[in-house]
Structures are given as C-alpha cells and as structure tokens.
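Dear colleague,

Thank you for sharing your sequence with our group. We've completed the structure prediction you requested, and as agreed, I am returning the results in plain text so they can be pasted directly into your records. Please verify that the sequence below matches your submission; if there's any discrepancy, let me know and we will rerun it promptly.
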Amino acid sequence: MARKRKGVPRHGWLVLDKPGTMTSTQAMAKVRWMMNAEKAGHGGTLDPIATGILPIAFGEATKTVQYAMDGHKTYRFVMKFGEATDTDDRAGQVIATSDVRPTDEQIEKALEAFQGLISQVPPQYSAIKVDGERAYDLAREGEAVELAARTVRIDGFHLTGRPDNDHAEFEVECGKGTYMRSLARDLALAVGTVGHITVLRRLSVGPFTLANAVTLEQLEQIVAEGEPDRLLMPVAAPLDRLPAIDLTPVEADRLRHGQGVSLLRRADLDRLEALRGAGGEEGTALALTEGRPVALVRLEGGELKPARVLNL
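Please find the predicted structure tokens below.
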C-alpha cells in the first residue's frame, strides 16, 4: 500500500530570492517545509554562493519544471581578476595567479567573441554527471574530470561597472545550460589573465523575475499571516512560449482519461499549423478548457495526444 505523502496539496509556482548561504535543494526543502507543501521541485539550480531567482514548483506545477529550466535567463556578476580558483568562484581554493589587469577597452573587445552560440566547457565543480557520478563529487575526491564542451546561447554580455582595477561587473542574457563561472573564467583568459566570480545574482528565469520574488524572511511572515497561497503563480506560468489550444469540456475530459482528441473536424486551421511548428519539444502545446490548463499535448497525425495531464 502506497504511503500517503505528507503536507497540503498546493499547486503553482513560488519565486524565491535565494540567499547565498544554501544550495538550491536546501532552499527548496526549506520553502516546502515552510509552506507545508505535499510536493515540490525547483526550476533550475543556482550555485551555492549565488542569490536571486529560484522558481519553486508545487504539486502539478512540477510537471512543467522543464519549461522553466529551458527559459531565457539574466544574471549579474562581479569578477575578480588575478586569481583563478578550482570552483571558478570565491568558494574555491586559489590555483593560479596573474599580475595582469585588463583595461575596459580590452574587456569590451574580448566580449565580442562571447555573443550568439558559443562553445563552453562547464566548471569542474558542477552537477553534470560523469559515468553516473556528479562532477563536483569527483572533483572533491581529487579526480581530474574531463567535461565535454557544449554549445550555449549568449544573447548579451555587457560590462556594466568597474569598481576598481581588480574587479569588473557584468550583466548576461542567455539560454539554458550556460555557466556564469565558465564565462568569467574564459573571459579572464581571453584578456590575458585569470579570474573568478565573487558575486553572482540571477535576475530572471523566463517569466519569473525579482518583481514577484520573496525572500525566506518575507515568506516566513506571510506564512505566519496564514496567506501563503497568495504568493503562488499559475501552474502554466512557464508555458507562455507554447501555443495554446482551447477545447470543449468533453474534449478536455477525453485528454484527462488519456484519450486523443481529433482536430480534423475543427475549424481552427491556423492553430493546427501553430501546433505543427511549435518550438521546444516538437509539436508540444498547452490544452485549455474554459481558461483552465488541462494537459501538455502533442500533435500526432490529426490528433492531440496527452503528454502530461495537469490534474487541477
């Protein structure tokens, strides 16, 4: 007999302004406990030293986590020149030094190579799995980890400040899978020195921004007032990039029971073409009825097939 999950069955997204004193998993667990939530997950790991946007999904929203992780992201970070660390941030041990300090002009020139699709090697201390083991676990055990380069998308990489000769401030707009620590490491090398991140803050993940974020302290106060659900954004919040299709209650009921819905007799041909050309997972769309999310669906032939049913 399955054990009943403890907690309240909440559904939706909470946007946490994560402190730089805990991991993303620790922060999610803390929020879940504070909200007394039955089920939770998070939409994209932040480094332990990083602060800022950590979207936390509750209940049926956990079925949409991948779409949050795939969303456009923005960051702000401070880099220190002249010291490389094994983690590529201030949490690590210094492994190399340099007396070279680049000028603003040299930095701006180097940034030109970090635009669009670029090849990036993740940090040694990362959550990427190597033969079933996390890279950071292997690195802590002293193993040299060979991580393959991956292609990431940089939409903007801007020098925004220069507090002193040793430090520079940047803002980055990027796609999924981009490591800020790798950007800082590689930029330092490009200007003839070494460097690491000292301050890192995520400003947005898809539709989740600092404007709708709360700190743990603010959440504690709101929970004490007995109104935690007012913080929740809709389950479908990260699905705004998907095409949506409205169904009748009868059609929606078919999807909820795992059955397909024929589109061949529907008049909405433009919507059918939008489904065929949907981005992300090919052919994926959000099915709605009377304004309520029903399921993530895929177009197969002339039918909508449920991929993930949202039990709301």
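Summary note from our side: The first helix runs from residue 24 to 35.

Kind regards,
the structure core
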